[in-house]
Amino acid sequence: MDQQSYTQIILSSLGLTMAIAPFIRFSCILHVHLRQSSSIHDCIKNIQSLLASNSETFQILCCVHNEESVRNMITLLEASNPTEASPICAYIFHAVELTGSAAPLLVPHTKQKKKFTHTSVPTNVHIMRAFENYSKNSKGPVVIEAFTMTAPYISMHETICHEANDKKVPLIIIPFHENHKDVIAPNCPTKAIRQFNINVQSYAPCTVGILVDRSLSCRLSLNHFSYNVAVFFIGGPDDREALAYSALMPGNTKVSISVFRFTLAETVIEEEQLKETKLDQALVDEFKLSNIGNDHLNWHEMEVADGVQLMDAIRQSHGDYDLVMVGRRHSEMSLRNEEMVDFMENAELGVIGDMLASSDFCGGMVNVLVMQDSREFELRTASDEKFNEVL
């Protein structure tokens, strides 16, 4: 073949590639757009929808990276009040970083014990065994389905979101990236875990809770179980999910709940904010009605002038808590000013959650669960924008 013929072949191949590439890209984005739109429309779930449907089983997906997160995950499951009428089905995902060129794996624990006992597939039998032992000894029925998830951290959220979508779970619990940072395994880098958490928050089809675990072990034995929970309710979808989750707990007489409802004194309320306020009040009324005569519930109403006063009131509401719950985002306009956002070190926890996880609250010695409602609007908007870019 002479030089001229060779050049013509190369140029023809290049031209053909340039002509076909845009069509391939368009087809891929169209497929993703249609799949995401259908998935979001059909499978968005949250804890409030669980309460409204009177579903018999509470499904929850828990992700752990090492043994240090297991104890408080188990305690949270027990506090969720498993009963014969409302059992718990917990999907436990032990996340292991994939190194090398091997393909990602999602291995059920039952198959893993038989098939991978003598191979190099990473596993931690102690984690699975702890959850299985809890299932046998819990006060109510708890079904454990355990998996080892081996994937790169950059794409690990895809497996979690897919499984949550497929199983239609209303809640995902993931550990905060700085949990036990002094003892964290070398294969669990905090930066990678933090990005994994942000990705799960961004793409999950259900509510996501980030658990800030302070390794508190007092009163957490199942034989002598006692759990003191505080909920800070300011308003908005995320705070409603925190309150809805706490609504599952009062049936457990070993759980005490203190709810602090904060209202901001505002002269003008926008129409959109008025809708949120009505939804807030409806859930509050339902919560109070279902807890009439409950001696284990303490309800506190507080009015504050602005965000600064709100933060001060929360700091002063410290107590002997095992867990504090709050929403990540809030509907009140006073909480969205730039000055408060500038103080955040961890945006994935939100303004209030970041403060609760710091030493400013209870000396930084309380477990914190930050809830975020499903991001249906954001997902659809992002998908539509990406699709429109091609058009």
Give a brief description.
This protein is of the alpha/beta class and 391 residues long. Helix content is 43%, strand content 20%.
Would you kindly provide a written description of the structure presented here, covering whatever features stand out?
- Residues 28-43, 114-123 and 379-391 have low confidence and may be disordered.
- The chain is α/β, with parallel strands linked by helices.
- Helix 1 packs antiparallel against helix 13 (376-390), helix 6 (156-167) runs parallel beside helix 7 and helix 8 runs parallel beside helix 9 (271-290).
- 43% of the residues lie in helices and 20% in strands.
- The chain contains 13 helices and eleven strands.
- The chain folds into two domains: 47-209, HUPs (Rossmann fold), CATH 3.40.50; 226-373, 3-Layer(aba) Sandwich (Rossmann fold), CATH 3.40.50.620.
- The protein has helices at 3-43, 47-53, 70-79, 109-115, 125-137, 156-167, 190-203, 237-246, 271-290, 307-315, 338-341, 350-356, 376-390, and strands at residues 58-64, 88-97, 105-108, 142-151, 171-175, 207-212, 227-233, 255-264, 297-304, 323-327, 367-372.
- The two termini are 42 Å apart.
